[in-house]
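4.2 Preliminary Data

To establish feasibility before requesting continued support, the project team ran the inverse folding procedure on a target of 179 residues. The structure was first converted into the token representation described in Section 3, and no sequence information of any kind was made available to the design step. The complete token record follows.
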């Protein structure tokens, strides 16, 4: 009692240089120079910004980047979200929304790298869908540095603003019994 606990756990054992199982960590962090040869890199100074909004309905996760929407596509997006919310109430299907800005802190130059932006994007998708293998569709363009190859192709908001039949097609796809 009253002893200095700096560098000690609650049982008074020295924690410096040990992992949680008490193993010595010295000499365990060497990285071989060839470990990073096959990694594709983008300069850290690449400016990646996005403002994503997403909706999860049933087993579909729909994502848009608000920075790429004009007033007519914003109107379609908001109408779609409202219609899906009403449909979810009627059918009892899952419905949730979320949004995220990147970078998350303005002028935070430490976290503006492409790798971090990609991880934030993937975390956003996972958090919205709550599934490791969601059915994801992008309804607008997103930042060119974000990898989104595991998405489904559905009509974009721009396409729907030019062709009303595509709105109906999207609705039928999203609300189909086993889509």
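Position-by-position output of the design step:
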């Amino acid at each position: 009692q009253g002893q200095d606990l700096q560098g000690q756990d609650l049982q008074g054992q020295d924690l410096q240089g040990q992992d949680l199982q008490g193993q010595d960590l010295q000499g365990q962090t060497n990285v071989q120079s060839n470990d990073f040869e096959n990694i594709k890199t983008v300069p850290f100074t690449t400016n990646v910004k996005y403002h994503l909004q997403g909706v999860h309905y049933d087993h579909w996760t729909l994502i848009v980047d608000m920075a790429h929407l004009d007033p007519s596509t914003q109107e379609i997006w908001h109408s779609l979200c409202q219609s899906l919310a009403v449909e979810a109430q009627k059918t009892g299907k899952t419905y949730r929304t979320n949004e995220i800005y990147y970078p998350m802190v303005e002028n935070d130059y430490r976290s503006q790298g492409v790798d971090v932006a990609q991880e934030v994007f993937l975390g956003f998708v996972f958090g919205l869908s709550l599934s490791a293998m969601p059915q994801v569709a992008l309804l607008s363009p997103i930042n060119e540095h974000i990898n989104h190859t595991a998405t489904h192709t559905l009509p974009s908001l721009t396409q729907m603003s030019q062709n009303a039949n595509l709105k109906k097609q999207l609705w039928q796809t999203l609300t189909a019994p086993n889509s």
